Amino acid sequence: MKKILFSFLIALVLVGCDEEDIERANRVSFENEQIEVKVPADAVDYQQTVKVYTSTVSGSARQFPIVVDEDGTTVDSSIYSLPTSVTIPADSNVGEFDLTISDIGITFDVATLALEFDTDSGVFSGSTVLNISELCEDTIVNLTLNFDGFAEEAVWELYDLSVSPPAVIATGGAGGAYTDLDNSSLTVDFCLPSGGYGIIVYDTYGDGGTGYVVTDANGTTLSSGTTPDAGGGYPVLTQDTDTFNIN
Prior knowledge:
single chain; Immunoglobulin-like; disordered N terminus
């Protein structure tokens, strides 16, 4: 009985090893399970090459269809293109394809593009997720606005203090743009070089209530405040002003 059990266990091990050997011998995979794609600001048809590897070498070229996993993808399909397949040249185990993408609506927050292979039976394949965001070679800064029940009253301006007079480099909220954001929050991202900056948050009615905080990518608070209540004479413009530095 012991001999039978021992032989059965050996058979299981051998079957397991055979299956692993088959998978290693017939595998196609992307260069990594996670691939970073940093798209330059305002880029049109920016290209990034993605490599593909097989575990075997063949004397003839091989093609592997590329499929987008819609469930794992958040990037807008209208801003990128990629080939429907990748070719592994003859006598090689490495191929590559280009992802072409434009900076339309891309932010510093990651959007994903999940890819996999549509392979024949007997070919084991890997998958990858391309993490797409806008390239920032300086410092990413976040402005978070916390609105009260009258978000349409909030307007903000970001100033570059390195020039005289200070120059507005970004603004938002004019014309009641935040009408649909009552009692919610909004975060706006910037890529800022080293220097001094000013932030002004206005309340166009004057009863205050919009809070704001400026943080860096590490979550360090650089500036914060709340628009004040004028106490009467509405409508009247009130504002909260602060400055911060990027080292």
